[in-house]
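Morning - zinc ion inputs below, output right after.
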Amino acid sequence: MTDYEELLDKGIEQAEDLGSGDRFQMPEVDTRKDGSKTIIVNFSDIASKFGRDEKHFSKYIQNDLGTAGHVEGKELVLNGEFRRGNVQRKVESYADDYVFCGECSRPDTKLTKEKGVEIMKCQACGARTPL
Ligand SMILES: [Zn+2]
């Protein structure tokens, strides 16, 4: 390998590193219908991508869609028929409210409770947002 090729290789590696660290890709919900129920097939994958508790996440989705449901394995089973795009929007608004930092918009946040108030703490910029 020539020096030039080696340099080129390094350049590409660095570019890839930057890309993966900086960008957060919004997960796409995958839904399936089961009679009068709607199932989010990749529910637990999305919850873990957000780094959020499945109970917290599923409660939000249920409240927002105005229905009841339960987690079954890796899936969330919702009563009623919902379109995929509709469910996707709820997932995105959950991310806006509870995952992305209000200051720097990064997803590197944690939820904690301080004096009974739920707070979102950003690991990237240190911002603390009461919820
Ligand atoms: Zn931040």
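Note: The chain has two domains: 25-99, 103-131.

O.
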